[in-house]
Amino acid sequence: MRVLVTGGAGFIGSHLVDRLMAGGCRVTVLDNLSGGSLENLGRWRGNGRLRFVRADLKDPAGVGGAVGGVDIVFHFAANPEVRVGETDPGVHFRENLVATLNLLEAMRGSPSASALVFASTSTVYGEAEVMPTPEDYGGSLPISTYGASKLGCEALASSYAHTFGMRALILRLANIVGSRSGHGVIHDFIRKLEEDPRRLEILGDGSQRKSYLHVSDCVEAVLRATGLLLEGEESVEVYNVGSPDQVSVTRIAEVVVEEMGLRGVEFAFTGGVDGGRGWRGDVKTMLLSVERLLKTGWRPKLNSEQAVRAAAREILRERKGKKEPSSQHRPV
Asked: ∠ CA(161), CA(283), CA(89), 5° rounding?
């Protein structure tokens, strides 16, 4: 199968590329490398089934050539920093809504690209009054511009699927963690503790509880749901993707401290805003209902705390590798 992965040099996208390539697909990666890295695709360097296109989805001229000749588009390009919307709301409008519209327009003009797999987010639900929150929860009122832009992208994908005969798979992701991640709470805690191993600043009051899913389990869910979309008859399908449990921010901090081998670390809670949130727009409690996905036979191998611990180990290993000198420069 011929596929396009936008954001394919980034965190989740590169892990998805690994699985698609291992499965024998012909993969085109479109990435502007603003957040991704060619190092994430290094194992496929020289492989004729991988094509890399450095382009920006915000520029329509750079999108058409990447879409041409593919069957399925996995849309994982986005600005993942939710907090940036508090200071520059236009970022999410441009990086999510404008980029997605340009991609859909390129697909509309392609004779072969007929299916879109869109990486959405749990933040589209806002502060859901029903937990675990199912896909058909009717009160989707995002409290961040990031969540609002993603909800808008979902609407665009649905409208194009129904109007132009495409198919769309919308995946509302929980907090995905693992190797190659350059942002998020685990990454931030490690960075802070490297700077000061005696004190860790924690945004909010520490009681925030959310679902976390390891990237390996996420990719398996993406592929399972994509297969079901292609086998079925519906124009649009929606799945929540996450772990069926939660972990608190305080427990994440404890896990990171344990994995770094530190003792006696002082936790300094900022107190947060709006009732203990880390920042305005931060959903304090999130738990997705993943029953629909579980019924397909998919099961996460790791729960939320296990995923956090595995991710901490992977990120620490990566950071250590980057700090070590290469073999030719090591003293003998």
From this structure: 65
* Cβ-proximal residues to 87 (8 Å cutoff; 6+ apart), any chain: none
Domain coordinates of the chain in residue numbers? Answer: 2-178+214-241, 185-209+245-286+301-317
State the number of CA atoms in the 13 A half-sphere of 313 facing the CB: 6
Structural class in CATH, domain 2-178+214-241: alpha beta
pLDDT tens per residue across span 101-142: 999 999 999 999 999 999 999 999 999 999 999 999 987 899
Q: How is residue 31 annotated by DSSP?
A: E
Q: What are the tens digits of pLDDT across the range 21-46?
A: 999 999 999 999 999 999 999 999 99
Q: Which residues contact 208 (CB under 8 A, 6 or more apart)?
A: 248, 249, 276, 277, 278, 282, 284, 285
Q: Report pTM.
A: 0.94
For the residues of 231-297, what is the DSSP string, one character each? HS--SEEEEEES-SS-EEHHHHHHHHHHHTT--SPEEEE---BTTTBSSTT--SB--B--HHHHTTT
> CATH topology for 185-209+245-286+301-317?
UDP-galactose 4-epimerase; domain 1 (3.90.25)
Instruction: Give exposure, 42-74, as e/b (b: 16+ Cβ within 10 Å).
Output: eebeeeeebbbbebbbeeeebbbebbeebbbbb
Nearest to 16 by CA among 117, 167, 96: 117
Cβ atoms within 10 Å, residue 198: 10
